[in-house]
Specification:
Protein name: DUF1320 domain-containing protein
Number of helices: 6
Helix content: 40-55%
Structural class: mainly alpha
Number of domains: 1
Pfam families: Phage_Mu_Gp36 (PF07030)
Length: 144
């Protein structure tokens, strides 16, 4: 099931314009959405559970993820039709989406997204990590 719905686009682009840029081919729009999702996952994967983020439906989806995913998808759709004539607003919104994703990846912004679970958990509930202590014994002087 796709993450975005048809109504998600209505906030940012008129339906008749969207139909023109996808050339009435829904598979083109679907491919742009998949590319946008993959691009977003590449930034979010280190800190967040991308499987849970993009499997959410309805009101369980994060509004910022929807907003920026639509921006990225529309940018890719415009690039598909005429790469040299992308509207300036789409370039600005695409760059804003990338800047937000970079800030999230660096930890400068903390959106309300499900955190990535610890991968090292074992059946006893521990993390499976070993504690290593470095150091040496105190120095003794043998001089009298």
């Amino acid at each position: 099931m796709p993450f975005l719905t048809e109504t998600d686009y209505e906030v940012q682009i008129r339906n008749w314009i969207r139909q023109i840029i996808i050339q009435r081919k829904e598979d083109v729009q679907h491919q742009a959405e998949l590319a946008a999702q993959a691009e977003m996952e590449s930034y979010l994967r280190q800190r967040y559970d991308v499987a849970r983020i993009f499997s959410a439906t309805g009101a369980g989806r994060n509004a910022l993820i929807i907003l920026y995913m639509v921006d990225i998808a529309i940018y890719h759709l415009h690039a598909n039709t005429a790469g040299d004539v992308i509207p300036e607003m789409r370039i600005i919104r695409y760059n804003a989406a990338k800047d937000w994703l970079k800030a999230v990846a660096k930890g400068e912004i903390s959106p309300d997204l499900p955190e990535k679970p610890d991968e090292g958990e074992n059946s006893e509930g521990g993390t499976g990590n070993q504690i290593i202590e470095f150091g040496s014994n105190p120095k003794y002087s043998e001089r009298y």
